[in-house]
Amino acid sequence: LAAISGVNGVFSDADIERYIASGEWQGKAGAYAIQGGFQQYIEHLSGSYSGVMGLPLFETARLLKQFGVLQ
Fold it and tell me: What is the pTM assigned to this prediction?
């Protein structure tokens, strides 16, 4: 099972500099958190929102049901 998600955004060099200076990017996979301040630059999300956040919950629950762990 593979889950593919994508995020497209629009931002300037000045936006990137402000974001880097904020420090929010630290400790984040991909250097951003979709649920944080970076979301102001996100124009489009395709796929699983929870997958972009870290754990694709829909897909995980489906697998757990398939193997009888969840009903």
Answer: 0.60
